[in-house]
Sequence to fold (405 residues):
Amino acid sequence: MAEHVILVVGPMGAGKTTAISALSDIDTIRTEAVNTERDVVDKATTTVALDYGEIELSPNEKIRLYGVPGQKRFDFMWSILKQRAVGMIVLVKNDAEDPVGDLVAFFDEFREIHERGGVVVGITHSDLAPRPTTYEYQQIVAERYPSALAPVFTVDPRSRDQLVVMLSVLAANVDSRAMFLAR
Amino acid sequence: MFASGASEVRERPDTVGWRSVATAIHSMRQLPMPMLLTVVSSDCEPLWVDFSTGRYYWERPLTAMPEQPGGVTVYSQPIEAGNPPYPWVAWRAMDPLLWQIGRYAFGTDRATWMRPGDRYALQRWPNLTEIPHSTEEIRMIATLANGYLTAQELGLLTGADEPTAQRVLNMLSLMGAVKPAGGPLAPPAVVAKVQAEPQQAAAASTSNFGFFSRLRDKMGGR
Fold:
């Protein structure tokens, strides 16, 4: 069985759980609990352990989607998962207090996945906060992490079509990078 | 609203199609001062492109863009920095407009500002959740993200024909999403490898994008 582990990361309220539900073939395995950080995000529940979904490409090939907890106090899980991950979708909530800081924090934490060319960034809530724009995010990422070019798209995490575009770009990037590195 | 001394509007000759518009957009993107481009056509409503904010306004949706508008005239005028024109209209991000103009402007010919044999690499991804695109176009953009390629090499690695690859390069170049190599550059090793086995090139282009192809088969997409 070939497996591709893809992480969905981002700060609380960015739409990770919604995105996995929109993509998964199976009912998402979802673990939520009372949000103890209501001063940060006004949301009754939040992800405190892994969300999990699957996409079956064939009987012998599967994508495993893991929604990684947004709160820093769960970062012990990040190091376990990132070793297995072929790619990562970073969701950034554009109307958060410091969306650029959020993006940079996740890029720093998951740098090795980014350097493998397997990162796609989705900007959520851009209807509420149009800036920073995708162009501005790309400039920031290119300046800080010149080794790989990260796609930055606006996305509604409820839109399966938009998430399929993001996942497709991630897969094409992984394939393309492997093609250029092949001996 | 307009910079002082900007009352003289330069008019360009009437043309058919998007070629003159694309050429004007490309040259205006190189200018250091903020500019407003106005496109007037006998077939559709006036189109405004504000380079200072990277936005455009058009009453017409892009899905109704004519492939060959008639009686096209392009006007350009400098505008004041920090004082975008016509604040009462609903401006939209420019990328989808440029992507579409780039598709129609030159067909599968090379854009007027590109030179034969030049190599290009991606410098930023277009916002593909807002732009209608094909599976083949994703494959080509991802390939350009990893090396400097000519249109012929891009086609070779992705299984596209050279004119189709050229059209995608035109579109990306108009958007400022690709950059040319600064000087003579050897092709990436993968190109030589595929060129050495031409009978396997088509098969290689498919197998090189196996994960992506299987995902698109499963999830849908043109």
